[in-house]
Structure to design on (430 residues):
DNA sequence: TGACATTGTGAACACTGTATACATCGGGTC
DNA sequence: GACCCGATGTATACAGTGTTCACAATGTCA
């Protein structure tokens, strides 16, 4: 519940900030974008919002709560990125090709976001979270679909097309997710950091193909 | 190059610590074991060594250098863990089964260490590093074999046994590594954190099977 | 013995997250 | 319209961090 806002535009800028929570979140997103979740610093956020350091505590109980809010937004952005590719998969192909296309869309969208927004990607996942959170529509796309949900849809399509046996379906999300996520981790903070983008992209393609084949 | 040490045992404990570098490293390992790389704090290390905060700077240029030293040790420990399973694979089986066994040994050893020593595992990888470092014998087992090298041996065996085509061999390390590493990431810091160990272990087995099948 | 490099100490700085007390404002009630 | 109250900001302070500078103690070697 947010209180309705009736202050004049002028009085906004004086004492009351207006929407400090949003401003802090935005600052947090900027910092995460540049340096990942560890680069989110409360005081700097208040500084950018032009406000005293402890004003942040009127909107976030804790630094970690700001980080989590940033993480939520990053997760939603990721979901949008995946969904765009997901929805672009041609529907008129044969069922197996279609299912493969969906699965590839999820994997490619995932990796694409990871390398386009490394800081935010890390913020999305290097944060206390659980499976419920990963499936909560609040953190999904505008249509409420999280990456995990989209992956599930793709896998269901695989089963329906006969490209994946029903008994292998349960838990298959974790297998596909792990593979793609691992590459992102290794290439973002890990030992593959120095790998050139082209090689990483090619490896991503091979990885997705491997998952499709091995599931 | 280290200077030879000729002080008496008694005089060691007074002014000169004796082996402060080692003591700091040990303290760093303890802290990382409990809370991962972020839990490594320089001042606390000096405190545990019974020494002034800035004494650390005689042995490490930087906090990050201590973290890296801890990371190196963790990487070596991981290598030992994998190597133990690796060497335990029976050699008299048929070539394909043997190669599969080696690959499974690497994957299982990797995951086993990740869940047995989550803090150290994260310290090993959440640190600036590159591929050279991951293949440097200095950071390997006592026999100088790093996890990456062991994985390479297993994959070579796959090719020799005819279980993996030669043209798919180059870069296959990255595929196998990513898959297994991803599960570890998701289950340690990520959204799978709350997953019960049994499920994680079972997923690990399925994941390795998927890699063997899909490579 | 005396110069010297090594390795420790002391004090300080800038920075962080966070708590406690206080000021200021807007909106709802008599 | 006066008044109180909850919401939201400020001032100040504290403990903790990494890091630096000047200095002291120590062992080594000419």
């Amino acid at each position: 519940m947010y209180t309705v806002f009736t202050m004049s535009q002028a009085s906004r800028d004086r004492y009351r900030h207006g929407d400090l929570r949003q401003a802090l979140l935005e600052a947090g997103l900027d910092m995460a974008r540049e340096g990942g979740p560890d680069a989110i610093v409360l005081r700097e956020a208040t500084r950018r919002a032009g406000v005293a350091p402890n004003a942040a505590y009127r909107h976030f109980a804790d630094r970690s709560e700001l980080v989590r809010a940033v993480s939520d937004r990053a997760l939603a952005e990721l979901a949008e990125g995946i969904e765009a590719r997901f929805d672009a998969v041609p529907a008129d192909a044969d069922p197996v090709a279609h299912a493969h296309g969906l699965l590839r869309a999820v994997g490619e969208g995932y990796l694409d976001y990871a390398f386009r927004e490394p800081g935010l990607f890390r913020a999305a996942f290097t944060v206390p979270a659980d499976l419920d959170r990963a499936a909560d529509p609040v953190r999904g796309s505008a249509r409420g679909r999280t990456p995990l949900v989209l992956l599930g849809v793709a896998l269901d399509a695989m089963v329906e097309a006969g490209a994946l046996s029903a008994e292998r379906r349960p838990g298959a999300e974790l297998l596909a997710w792990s593979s793609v996520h691992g590459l992102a981790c290794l290439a973002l903070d890990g030992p593959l950091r120095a790998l050139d983008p082209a090689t990483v992209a090619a490896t991503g393609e091979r990885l997705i193909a491997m998952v499709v084949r091995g599931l």
